[in-house]
Amino acid sequence: MKLLEERIRQDGIVIGDDILKVDRFLNHQMDPALFQAMAEEWKRQFAGDHVNKILTIEASGIGIACIVGLVFGCPVVFAKKSKTRNTPEECYMATVRSFTRGIISDVTVSKKYLGPSDRVLIIDDFMATGEAANGLISLVKEAGAHLCGVGIAIEKAFQQGGNALREEGIKVVSLARIGTMSESEGISFLD
Amino acid sequence: MKLLEERIRQDGIVIGDDILKVDRFLNHQMDPALFQAMAEEWKRQFAGDHVNKILTIEASGIGIACIVGLVFGCPVVFAKKSKTRNTPEECYMATVRSFTRGIISDVTVSKKYLGPSDRVLIIDDFMATGEAANGLISLVKEAGAHLCGVGIAIEKAFQQGGNALREEGIKVVSLARIGTMSESEGISFLD
Question: What is the pTM (predicted TM-score) of this model?
Answer without folding.
Answer: 0.95
